[in-house]
Amino acid sequence: MNNRKLDHNLLVVFDAVYRLANLSRAGIELGLSQPAVSNALNRLRAAYGDPLFVKTSQGMLPTPFARTIAPAIREALQLVEETLESNRKFDPLTSDKLFVVAMTDYGSATLLPALLSELAGIAPKVAIKVLRLDEKRVLKKLEANEVDLAFSSQVEAGADFYEKVLFKDEFVCLVAKDHPEIVEGITLAQFVGYDHVLYTPQEGNIGVVDRALAKRRLASHTRLYAPHALAIPLVLNGSDLMVTLPERLARAFQSAWEFRAFKPPLEVPGFEMKMVWHRVNHGDAASNWLRELCTRLFQVREAEPN
Predict the structure, then answer these.
(1) Is 258 in the same domain as 243?
(2) Across 161-187, average pLDDT
(3) What DSSP letter does each residue of 49-93 carry, written as one string?
(4) Do 175 and 164 share a structural domain?
């Protein structure tokens, strides 16, 4: 037998004729005309070197050889169907899928609590692996399918990538609850005069505060450059330092520490948090489910006008 003469559609025709014993009914089930079914059957006969089905008063009856190969053909078709269904469907209740996501600790602090809480109820076996977001390498990791989804405010995605904005965050200033001077608000003089903690989740020593001050020909002194957010509340507590953080992260700290939060005394532009993924994962049922879940949990929609 020449395997090149066979394709999946011919085996589907064989299975239908075997089950229904009638070319017309097989054609109706498959959406084919009777001549098309007959042509497919002739190709099967030539490939196998056997009549396969014989027309009788009881219909198209299989030959002994056809009876021999029928179970294997049915099993092969079922396996093909299962592979197709596996990409079309994702069952969160039974899946033990491990999703790999890339984010800074800002993303971890603001997104993971709600995400894991939701997963516990609707996808109890699904797990999340968090990789540190490296904005210089994350696109390559997405393309190589090493990362399913990235959460970033700065990654510039190219033509092979998709992105969706989840929300916008603004900046606020935090100081210790017992700060000696900053009690009800922060003046520009205080903002420049007191030392800062600079949150630097990515490489570099220039932050949004520095750029905002530079526009006014001002500068502040940074005493600590902190690439990880975890240390910030420990350092800030009981000190006269101040830090300017995304509001969602600041509120997370305030829930555990009694910090004072104020609007900065100058304009500090906010940012958009977005999901980024490569087209290699765009049609994957599991990845699509995770993106839809994150959209439902985190996307903030603008209020519709009255």
Answers:
(1) yes
(2) 92
(3) TS--EEEETTEEEEPHHHHHHHHHHHHHHHHHHHHHHHHH---TT
(4) no
Tokens of 188: 């520009």
The set of residues, in sequence order, having a beta carbon less than 8 Å from that of 223 and lying 6+ positions away, is: 195, 196, 197, 241
pLDDT at 200 over 60: yes
Q: What is the CB neighbour count within 10 angstroms for residue 121? A: 8
Q: What is the pLDDT of residues 111-129, one digit of tens each?
A: 999 999 999 999 999 999 9
Total-model pTM: 0.69
pLDDT higher than threshold 80 for residue 11: yes
Write out the H or E segment, with its range, that includes residue 208. helix 208-214
Residues 180 and 256 reside in one and the same domain: yes
Q: In this structure, what CATH number is given to the domain that contains residue 228? A: 3.40.190.10
Residues 252 and 194 in one domain: yes
Cα separation, 54 vs 105, whole angstroms? 69
Determine the pLDDT at residue 3.
52
In angstroms, the CA 55 to CA 200 distance is: 78
Given a cut of 50, is residue 306 above it in pLDDT?
no
Range of the domain at 280: 98-168+271-298
Q: Report the number of distinct structural domains present in the chain.
A: 3
User: Based on the domain organization, do 293 and 154 belong to the same domain?
Assistant: yes
Question: Measured between alpha carbons, how far is residue 151 from residues 228, 247, 272 in Å?
Answer: 16, 17, 10
| Other Cβ atoms closer than 10 A to 175 | 23
Examine the domain organization and report whether 82 and 142 are in the same domain: no
